[in-house]
Amino acid sequence: MADHTLSQTSCCGCSGGACATLVTPDPEGAKHAKILDFKGFWHYFWRMPELKLVIPGIALLAITFFLPRFGLGDTWVTIIQLLLLPVAGWFVLSHGFKSLFIERRLNMDVLMSFALIGAVLIGEGVEALVLLVLFTLSEAIEGYTSASARKVLTEFADLAPKHALRVANGEEHEIGVEELNIGDHIIVRAGERLPMDGIIVNGQSELNQAPITGESAWVPKNIGDEVLSGTVNGSGLLQVEVTRLVADTTMQRIIRLVTEAQATKAKQEKFIDKFASIYTPIVMLVAILVALIPTVFFKQPLWNTPESYGWIHRGLSLLMIGCPCALVISTPITIISGLTRAARSGVIFKGGVYLEGLSNVKAVAFDKTGTLTRGEPKVERVKAVDCLDENEPCEPCDHLLALASSLEERSSHPLSNAILERAEERGVRGQIPPAEELKVLGGRGQEGIVNGKKATIGSVPLFLAEHHTPEDLIEETRRAEEEGRTTVLVCDGEAVRGYLTLRDQARPEAIEVLKTLQAFGVHTVMLTGDNAGAARHIANSLGIHEVNSSLLPHEKLDALEILQKKFGMVAMVGDGINDGPALARADIGVAMGGAASGQILETADVVLMNNDLKRLPFALRLSRFTNKLIRQNIIISLGVKFTVAALAIMGLTPLWVAVLADIGISLLVTVNGLRATGFEKEEI
């Protein structure tokens, strides 16, 4: 039966129900699944268009059981029932006919069609009726629970208002969000949800960003701060400048990514699909052999007798219990539930394969700056070679800082931001025009043309290799690095003019995150381009297992390969921009992503929204829980099927018991898979 809330492409070839694979979010489907109770189910059930044909057909089929009382012979009753069967079982027989004769493949509908026709032919019309009633109910239940598992997408979609109050020429007009352009100004009143991504240009307030980050907390926002669609404004009135079109807002990108993830099959899901394509024909063959071998070679009764079920009945029972639907739906339902649960907590998996794979990770490599640290280093010291006063700002040191800011003006690296911030504080930013022909030196620094000369800013190894650097300056920088600081040297094109020291602070949550991962048996590693002293300082404070420092980008890739050979599956956690190659090389790339960054959302395999490292242990626990549910469902499905199949061959099960067992398993694995949507986040 085709469930109208689902795609018609089903994972095991059945006609729909819980086996279907999500392609696009369906507001109507989720509307039916608003409440997981009998009221919600019956509302969904009676809205199914197939019932307009199925219920009258089933009613007419039931009436045929009374025809013998009016003198009609069994042969005529059977003929009438066969004529009514395509009406009462239209959703099964039509799809079965299409699968067998057009698509030339065996699936659940083919098995059910043979069982229905066979039941009528052997005089078990009542059982055929019971089969139809149970099957109709099971398809409705599975479709309803499937829609419930995916309703988070429409919850996301509903969070962003469809209209906005635009301000133009001093006048306010309410318009649809699709009419807004980048640069338009909108008004957001207290208590309202933001309809678009933007920047605050007037007003201040606090926002609840739970729909994006998963954390229900009020975050202060002022002029110049970025705000996201779907978040809730607090007590202030805000004027916001739109920065993205409606199709590109953070909310829409999350919906798009989760939808695409749900359409990406996990490895276990692909295996089960392949298994089902082989398993179903085997079940059909075994059922035929069970019906024929005892009757042809051992003279056993083909038809039912007063004493026992005939072998054709036993073969039909095997067809019913042998249907692979429960086995096949167990994985996609569970994966969908896990993906939607993760999205609610601000963890975006780019596919079921990554949700599945994260549980198998044995080692996690972390970038340092912006991942294990705040990513907000501060300049602690500016020291020119000809410094006049180490305790007070002097002209040579100010000139050094101005030169450094000139080289960093067009860079987005966290160290660049720190240097520019200090230059702004000392009033020297802009004294020297921004460097031209800027060139990044492979993770060691950068150079550009300043005042007609090729100036350079970079690490100690770079200057040792390419510049004549005074010994006392080298000694000072090394001492600073041993104390856990990051140092950069500056050359004006003629001589080395001095150095700057910077220090970043570890994230306050990083210690507990690493302890939790290590308690899970995960080996933790730091891969950083920073100097050994600064790396060791952070690593010692966090208790990380292993440190690799002073790495160039290609050396990070080599380090990852070594980890993969040693541990197997390795995840890499970075900021998603300058760690792009390492994230790509790792088995699972995890990006620390600000929710407003489109580049972050499109990078890596997993995105931790709002730069929240605490979501990593949650993602790992959810992955392990999801895989545990998948294993449980496979064991339950195969165990019950083999047990009932044995009973069917022994002649101990009527047809309806076989169908009820199959339906019961399907419902059980569906409900068990849905447990992933209720997985609770453990606070660190």
Describe what this molecule looks like in 3D:
- 50% of the residues lie in helices and 15% in strands.
- The relative contact order is 0.10.
- Helix 11 (267-297) runs antiparallel to helix 13 (325-344) and helix 13 packs parallel to helix 26.
- A hairpin with a 2-residue loop joins strand 14 (445-450) and strand 15 (453-458).
- Residues 1-36 have low confidence and may be disordered.
- It is elongated.
- It has four domains: 17-153 and 265-300 and 309-339 and 624-678, no CATH class; 160-246 and 253-258, Calcium-transporting ATPase, cytoplasmic transduction domain A (Distorted Sandwich), CATH 2.70.150; 348-373 and 506-611, 3-Layer(aba) Sandwich (Rossmann fold), CATH 3.40.50; 378-503, Calcium-transporting ATPase, cytoplasmic domain N, CATH 3.40.1110.10.
- The two termini are 45 Å apart.
- It is of the alpha+beta class.
- Strands 10-22-21-20-11-18-19 form a seven-stranded mixed beta sheet, with helices on both faces. A six-stranded antiparallel beta sheet has the order 2-1-3-9-4-7, with no helix packed on it.
